[in-house]
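for the writeup, i need someone to sanity check this before i put it in the appendix. the sequnce is what the collaborator sent (i think, or maybe the updated version? ugh). structure was predicted straight from it, no edits. if anything looks off just tell me and ill rerun, i have time this weekend
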Amino acid sequence: MKHITQGLVAAAALAALAAVGTVQAQKSAADGIAEYRALLADGNPAELFEAKGEDLWKQKRGPKNASLEACDLGKGPGVVKGAFVELPRWFADTGRVQDLESRLLTCMGRLQGLDEAAIAKTRFGQGEQLNIEALVAWISAESRGLRMNLPQQHAEEQRMYQLGKRAFFFRGGPMDFSCASCHGEDGKRIRLQDLPNLTKNPGDGVGFAAWPAYRVSSGELWGMQRRLNDCFRQQRFPYPGYASDVTVALAVYMGVNAKGAESIAPSIKR
């Protein structure tokens, strides 16, 4: 009996050590990814997109040969600083709640005479959408360090929040998958990477407050529209449509939940 007891104690000790080792390995992996991002952040390639975006903002383009300097992003014509952390929001001139990308699309159409519908129909990450992503990089950088503060006073802003919440938890497709499957609770991981809980404020520079971001794996800068499109792809859902209501509603839901989080956009991702 004594030998059996000693054997059980030894087995329990080995199991405990294995568990500790697993936790330490997971922690080391997460720490390693954080250190990797910190190293890359010094000289983040997103800076190149920021420079292009600033140039595009001031450049006269399109059939009307006009710049975007009169574009109203919610804080008055031409005001950029602080706009990013308050988007999506309601715009009276379009009668819609718009995120940064859909708002830029409106400005490009109205001010420069570019074809909004044609740009929206382009495949994600091509044509003028690449210019919009560069603009998003610069505009978001102008609010870096500010805190997310999406408005919810207008009835349409509140409606879009509820629509975004429904879309976030909606399960479907061949995988019976939803946004909440990955981002609906604490402590989830994928490929050694922590998955933020987006049903609440996940913290400074995490989740919504970290996008747009430069994707090291693809060598591209992704705006929130393209990021959400990739989520739909992974869920095996149909193409959502650029600047569609569902993408804007999801951004409202995540952005409102991130209230108070410090924006570090454009950040850097694997």
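The two ends are 54 Å apart (CA to CA). Residues 1-42 form one domain.
thx in advance!!
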